[in-house]
Structures are given as C-alpha cells and as structure tokens.
C-alpha cells in the first residue's frame, strides 16, 4: 500500500482562485480592495521568504498589501505604539506581525496588542477563545488550511481518533479544537494531543486514524509508529544538511515520508502540502476582515 498524496499546492490554488473572484466581486460592488499590513521586525531570512510568499499571494488575488520593516532594536513600547496606529487606521483591514520576533520582544504581548477584528493570523486570545467555544472567529491559518484539505479530499473526521503531535498555540492546540468540534459539518473526532512530555509516543500515534504532526523535529514519526490506513498531515518544515543540493540542504517534514507513506492512506508532502494552504487561508481571512463579516461594525 502506498498513500495517495494530499496536494496542498492544488487546493491552495483553488482557494486563491475563489478568493480572487470574491475580491473582484467586492470591489465591483463599489468597495475598496482589502488591505493587509505586514509588520516585519529584524532581518530573519526565513521570515523574508514567508513574507514574500504572502505578498505574492496578495497580488494574485487582488488584495493590497504593504510590508513595514522595523529594526530589531525597536522597543516593545515603540512596536505596540506602531500597532495601535494600525488598529486605528480604517484603511487597514488586516494586521500580520511576522513571527518569530527578536528575543527581547514578547510575541504574546504583541499579538494581544493587535485589534482582534484585524487579527487575520487568528492568534489573538479573543479569536482563540471564541474558536474554543464554537463562536465565529478568525481561525489560525494553518489549522484552517488542514480542515480545508480534509473537505476537498472528502476525508472524514467524524468518529475518528485524531492524534496531534505538538501543542503549540499556532497549530497543535487550534487544530485539536477544530477536530474535536461537536457542532457543524467538520470535527466530531476523538482527539489526543501529544507533546514533548508525552511518554511512549508510539502507543498514541499507532492508534491514530488521523495523525497531525507539528513538532518541529525532522523525521520524528517513522513508519513503524503508524497503523495501516492512517491519514497523515505533516506540518513540519525542517532544513537538513544535504550536500547533493545546490543550497546545501533539503526541506523535510516531521515524518519520515518514505516509510510512513507505505502505510498511510493519505499523506501530505513536504514541501507542497500544508504550507501553501496557510498562505491561502490568510487571503481568505483578510477578505473576511475587509467585509466585516465575522465582526460586523
């Protein structure tokens, strides 16, 4: 048995096409184009790559965007004052502060300083809290993208045992909430969350019908750790040294793809799986912010 591939590039393109049409309809109805303000602090090369991908996606779907580049010496007070200005600017629909931040800045404080109605990343405690109790909110883009993949490929979650490896506020916690939802079309899975303190990880992963891995450890999950027919979503993206590559490294996930795919029914590749969906869902959230459809004014 070899797994079928969950093609994140393909589904992300379909999602962007849908957003592009909706943006066009929105503008043709007499509204201005949605506007996303990106705030980039410091000179993290990986952050530059991510921001570039987001900027290109905005251009493709008709969302206007600007990247505010701030020095890594900026103080917490100065950064939060800048964000407050953006909160008060009616021409700004969405605010995205690219993570990670320099060590002297608290990501929690910075995220909380963003107006939750403009928090298109879905990280603000107001959005996370509303998600937890099943109220409308901006959903974290990566978990929302995973749910979108399940919908596209008609992969059922109801009654399944979903195991999430990784308990971050960005992926692990919110996807466990979405999978565990009782109301609506999605969710209804029994959900187990594992993390670095979990004893005997394999006893949990091998019982999973759906396995979401977001641990940030290359090749953590091996083929012998999963059961036949499991659906595997690999959120990890790790650089590992590879002298055969021009750049000197390869990108790999948190799963050992070659061994896991022999037992899985469906699997996401790395790259080309979850990553493109994260950016596509950001576009969707920015349009929703412009329309004030989640938090009407």
From TrEMBL:
EC assignment: 1.5.1.5, 3.5.4.9
Cross-referenced PROSITE patterns: THF_DHG_CYH_2
Gene Ontology, cellular component aspect: cytosol
Ranges of residues in domain Tetrahydrofolate dehydrogenase/cyclohydrolase catalytic: 6-121
InterPro entries the record matches: Aminoacid_DH-like_N_sf, NAD(P)-bd_dom_sf, THF_DH/CycHdrlase, THF_DH/CycHdrlase_cat_dom, THF_DH/CycHdrlase_CS, THF_DH/CycHdrlase_NAD-bd_dom
Pathway: One-carbon metabolism; tetrahydrofolate interconversion
Binding residue positions for NADP(+): 166-168, 237
Signal peptide span: none
This protein's record includes keyword Transcription: no
Domain Tetrahydrofolate dehydrogenase/cyclohydrolase NAD(P)-binding: residue ranges: 140-293
Keyword Amino-acid biosynthesis: yes
Top-level taxon in the UniProt lineage: Bacteria
GO molecular function, one term: methylenetetrahydrofolate dehydrogenase (NADP+) activity
Catalytic reactions of this protein: (6R)-5,10-methenyltetrahydrofolate + H2O = (6R)-10-formyltetrahydrofolate + H(+); (6R)-5,10-methylene-5,6,7,8-tetrahydrofolate + NADP(+) = (6R)-5,10-methenyltetrahydrofolate + NADPH
Gene3D superfamilies: Leucine Dehydrogenase, chain A, domain 1, NAD(P)-binding Rossmann-like Domain
CDD domains, sorted: NAD_bind_m-THF_DH_Cyclohyd
Stated family: Belongs to the tetrahydrofolate dehydrogenase/cyclohydrolase family.
Summary of the function given for this chain in its UniProt record: Catalyzes the oxidation of 5,10-methylenetetrahydrofolate to 5,10-methenyltetrahydrofolate and then the hydrolysis of 5,10-methenyltetrahydrofolate to 10-formyltetrahydrofolate.
Assembly: Homodimer.
Protein name according to UniProt: Bifunctional protein FolD
């Amino acid at each position: 048995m070899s797994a079928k591939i969950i093609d994140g590039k393909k589904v992300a393109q379909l999602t962007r096409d849908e957003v592009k049409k909706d943006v066009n309809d929105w503008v043709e109805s007499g509204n201005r184009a949605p506007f996303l303000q990106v705030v980039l602090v410091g000179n993290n090369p990986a952050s530059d790559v991510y921001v570039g991908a987001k900027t290109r996606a905005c251009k493709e779907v008709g969302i206007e965007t600007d990247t505010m580049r701030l020095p890594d010496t900026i103080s917490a007070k100065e950064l939060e004052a800048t964000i407050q200005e953006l909160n008060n600017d009616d021409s700004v629909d969405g605010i995205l502060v690219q993570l990670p931040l320099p060590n002297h800045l608290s990501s929690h404080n910075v995220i909380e300083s963003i107006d939750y109605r403009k928090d298109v990343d879905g990280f603000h405690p107001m959005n996370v809290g509303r998600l937890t109790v099943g109220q409308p909110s901006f959903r974290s883009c990566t978990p929302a993208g995973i749910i979108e993949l399940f919908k596209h490929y008609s992969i059922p979650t109801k009654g399944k045992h979903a195991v999430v490896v990784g308990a971050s506020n960005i992926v692990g916690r919110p996807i466990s909430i979405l999978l565990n939802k009782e109301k609506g079309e999605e969710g209804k899975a029994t959900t187990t969350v594992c993390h670095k303190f979990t004893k005997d990880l394999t006893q949990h992963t091998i019982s999973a019908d759906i396995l979401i891995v977001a641990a940030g450890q290359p090749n953590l999950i091996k083929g012998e750790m999963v059961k036949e027919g499991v659906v595997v979503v690999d959120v990890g993206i790790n650089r590992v040294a590879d002298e055969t590559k021009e750049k000197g490294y390869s990108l790999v996930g948190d799963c050992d793809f070659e061994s896991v795919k022999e037992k899985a029914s469906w699997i996401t590749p790395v790259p080309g799986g979850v990553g493109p969906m994260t950016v596509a869902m950001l576009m969707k959230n920015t349009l929703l912010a412009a329309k004030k459809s989640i938090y009407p004014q």
